[in-house]
Amino acid sequence: MSPPRRTRIQRRNSETILDAALEVFSAQGFRGATLDQIAEVAGLSKPNLLYYFPSKEAIHLALLSRLLETWLDPLKAMNPDGDPVTEILLYVRRKLELSRDFPRESRLFANEILQGAPRMRRVIETELKDLVAEKARILTRWMEEGRIARLHPVHLIFSIWAMTQHYADFEMQVGTVLGPDEPDPYPEAGLYLDTLFRRLLAV
């Protein structure tokens, strides 16, 4: 028997709670966040919040599960039959856009990894690892065909993650160092990363 469908109000309240939790978790981390803080940001009572999610862990896992799907989509979209440089640069651009559009989500994921991924370890050891291995085989084939420079394929993916997610995970530092003359770092970051990876991949 399938569970009853939630009403529009129930769906709206669930999204309100998840958005509030994202704000609290991304700022405080899992350990520092409390249900009381999430309820306050959501504008709901704690008992009302617990009607939708039985625990802080349940809210956190719901956010991480949804985030991981969004985070993996650009890597999944890398086309093995496309032009290698174009496909890799598209991946870099999509990852940078995720940092621009979802900075809180990026920090949420970073906090989970820094804590040893207690709630996401199984997914990282299976789905994420398998996807990276699949794309590494594609990158290796392109290298063997002489279409891009020979590099360690997994470290290439790691470098893309590091250089794009930095702008979200260290948003305050980026903004402070660049100063008011560059209020939006993403256009210049996109140009820089495009140039960097084109030169790195050149045969």
TrEMBL record:
The keyword Nucleotide-binding does not apply. The keyword DNA-binding applies. Keywords: DNA-binding. Residues 34-53 bind DNA. It comes from the Bacteria. Gene3D superfamilies: Homeodomain-like (1.10.10.60), Tetracycline Repressor, domain 2 (1.10.357.10). GO terms for biological process: negative regulation of DNA-templated transcription. Residues 11-71 form the HTH tetR-type domain. One of its GO terms (molecular function) is DNA-binding transcription factor activity. This is TetR family transcriptional regulator. It comes from Cereibacter sphaeroides.
